[in-house]
Automatic annotation (TrEMBL):
InterPro entries: HTH_MarR-typ, MarR/SlyA-like, WH-like_DNA-bd_sf, WH_DNA-bd_sf. GO terms for biological process: response to stress. Residues 1-134 form the HTH marR-type domain. This is DNA-binding MarR family transcriptional regulator. GO terms for molecular function: DNA binding; DNA-binding transcription factor activity.
């Protein structure tokens, strides 16, 4: 298990670096791309705290990225009828275009990564990753075991 975790750390770093290179020409980073994708997949405007939860990320880090994307016109804020201070994050047309362009760049890249891998192996790996994430989100946190 420890070897798997160490390899996941290495893989995560390489994926972030590769993603950064892939979308650099769009003025994005992997983190910015991730935020845009989370806003899109949410299906409706959400506050930053909810986006951070969906990303499994720190709210303050997501807030900083959202603020930067808002300054660049890729995201905008809307009033939240349920909470005065927690504005809703919405994608602008410019943000949608940037995300769609990133995904067009991503398609051949992900095809290249998948080349030679078996679909069943990918499904099994995905299932293991989901199970580990579920444990960490539920009762597997380090603080709870000490």
């Amino acid at each position: 298990m420890t070897d798997l975790i160490l390899d996941l750390f290495r893989l995560n770093n390489r994926m972030i670096n590769a993603g950064d290179k892939l979308v650099d020409g769009l003025g994005l980073t992997s983190a910015r791309w991730h935020v845009l994708g989370t806003v899109i997949t949410a299906g409706r405007p959400q506050p930053v705290a909810w986006l951070a939860r969906d990303m499994g990320a720190n709210r303050q880090n997501v807030q900083r990225i959202v603020n930067d994307l808002e300054k660049e016109g890729l995201l905008a804020f809307q009033p939240n009828p349920h909470h005065r201070r927690a504005q809703l994050v919405v994608l602008t047309d410019r943000g949608k275009q940037a995300y769609e362009t990133a995904m067009r760049l991503q398609a051949p890249w992900v095809d290249m990564l998948a080349e030679g891998l078996q679909v069943e192996d990918l499904k099994t790996t995905h299932a293991v990753m989901r199970a580990l994430r579920s444990k960490l989100e539920g009762n597997g946190d380090v603080e709870e075991q000490t």
